[in-house]
Batch of 2 targets.
Target 1
Amino acid sequence: MTSKLLAAEIAERAGIALAIINGTHLRPLARAVEHDRGTLFLARREDNARKAWLGGRQKMAGALVVDAGCANALGKGASLLATGIVQVEGTFGRGDPVGVRDAQGRPVAQGLAEYTSQEIEAIMGLRSERHEAVLGYAPRAAVIHRDHLVLL
């Protein structure tokens, strides 16, 4: 059942309605409606396939806690920048899925990290022009780019 619910959540995010019904009967959808059987999940939003996958119930490798200004900017479609990060939780690598929470612990978003947890700890709170001096290489555009981030 867990895999069915995960599929339903991904479908909902992708703008697809999904029904969990008995498919062994002739005309299963009509039968489910006639007999009031099964569970229907309606589409909640219209994310593209990648964002629907990112917003699914995958296991997060860690979490980033952000300040109120950063949480507000994310809500308006911005990428996650190091300046707004106040805490790094867990150990993760570049490309790993991470959760993003506000200072009160409320989930804000989740996405794919562009840096390791150690690199983020080194640059959190810093403006991007200071990243190269701290990291020793030219920085990426964001800690989590908006194309790899989904709001919760």
Target 2
Amino acid sequence: MGRPQAIERVLLKLSGESLIRPGESGIDPEVVGLLAVQIRRAHEVGVQMAVVCGAGNLVRGAEFARMGTNRATADQMGMLATAINCLAIQDALERAGVETRAASAMEMKTFMEPYIRRRMIRHLEKGRVVILAGGTGNPYFTTDTAAALRATELGVDVILKATKVDGVYTADPMLDPSAAKIPEITFKLALDRDLRVMDRTAFTLCMENDMPIMVFDMFQEGNLERAVRGESIGTWIVSE
């Protein structure tokens, strides 16, 4: 499977850093508001959209684990932090006029639905943006892996991997001025070259389930809308 012939349902993978300005931590309401506008414009194209956000702006479980915190506990802290980001994105989207549903892989029934695959698909079919918190609900798995898992379960056409660069390069373009942008690459080649688009668990899950990924610059105005239209604005990662 190469690029999808038509894009009708997508999963947008955001990093926690998407919710703040460079060098900051926490959540910047203005940045989240601008992000919500971009998501609204992309949604208005007519695609169904699910969102998974990391929590690096609040908690990095791996860092706590390195400092001696039990790894499972550290990861649970990170999963809770994704719920905070999820609620911030949901509120901004609702204020921007987008109907949403927030769901968690962990039980948080006082303010968020449980993640139930069929229910989430129904929300998508009704035109709601679904924001998914809690990762996979298990420690030792990243939000990249959660995004790959949910994308596969929900039957999306592509994972849109939002980054601060405009695609995948042969080397780090910030360190190597000779680095060249790769417009399209197969999963196998990306793994062989150790390009590290996602962690290997997430990447392998996408490869085994023929789930294409588009890596693009989320911070360029209008790029998300272009991405859901299928324009080649970043790097496509596809099966053979």
